[in-house]
């Protein structure tokens, strides 16, 4: 059937395939803070791959752990059967979670973690005699992956539109981003905790007895780095408690040091009932996700289960031995290099750098917390290419990888970065913004 043509066969989501084929941007290797592009040049990774490479690329202890594990136990299921490393990984992960969230369910991705958490929430409500609670509440501008559950509770209408009927009985909180009051806010915005009252509106509208859970990203990442206003998450927690609603934090981006602690829950001092994770769990070396559940949630489901089935859910590759090996080595590395603390130590320098772009051409907002940053550009009226996308392409050619979401440049570098890397990232961005019309 002729010669294979990889570029033709590879279906790239979310990408102008034709444009990409004309000018492919590919990586062939990675090390520490850098990728090597197929074209040969080094690219400074200011996005941690896809918000996931928190300890830097190809770190030797993780590589070695995976290599060693690959020759020992290639695969073992984790239902009906198990393997010791799955237990060890769950125990070590539980130690990083807020007090009480020590029941771990393994998945393979963030999207699977979200669907898993939603199912756990529904199963829990049913197990305590609250079977009428089937409604799930997400938030506008929330991103929760691409499973049917995730796009249903997700707040990006464009991600749902193509797919017809999704989960029914879903509603969305208003989003928290208020540029009129919080432009150029640093850390948590001062204004907007009152937006949490929107949950009271939905409770009044639907009736608390119909609502199982609320899911939010503590810091919305993929929709442009939206940091929750001071007091907002605390107020959501209070309202959920008052009405018997479970609170789920989707920490696929924020967990593992991105905001300076093991979880954003810890950083913001709010303990949800369930936390979804992926990405930094294995430093992205092997795909893996997880859900941490409050012990009472787990116990209610298990204790009240019909004989034989506690939770009919699980993936073939849940707790895969190679993923567990990667996760354990990653936890060790985070601890050995104090990487979560490092994000705190660099936070001010990073925030100064992010906010140094205030006044740069086209910049209308800068936001940052921990080692995450968002730079919002004024939309280009009626032009096919967004300014931010132009910056992305020019940055790549100039040896810098940024992530673009709409008109926002999003940054989430590996936590091993040095101040010189921060200077390089923002020096380049500042120069590049001047070249964009
Ligand atoms: N939730 C959040 C908050 C995410 O940022 C993402 C991915 N960016 C996901 C879920 C989905 O994760 P995955 O792509 O691993 O399925």
TrEMBL record:
Keywords (A to Z) from UniProt: Aminotransferase, Pyridoxal phosphate, Pyruvate, Transferase
Superkingdom field: Bacteria
GO molecular function terms listed in the Swiss-Prot or TrEMBL record: adenosylmethionine-8-amino-7-oxononanoate transaminase activity; pyridoxal phosphate binding
Gene Ontology BP term (one): biotin biosynthetic process
Cofactor(s) the protein needs: pyridoxal 5'-phosphate
CDD domains noted in UniProt: OAT_like (cd00610)
InterPro entries (UniProt xref): Aminotrans_3, Aminotrans_3_PPA_site, PyrdxlP-dep_Trfase, PyrdxlP-dep_Trfase_major, PyrdxlP-dep_Trfase_small
Homology family: Belongs to the class-III pyridoxal-phosphate-dependent aminotransferase family.
Name the record gives this protein: Beta-alanine--pyruvate transaminase
Organism encoding this protein: Novosphingobium kunmingense
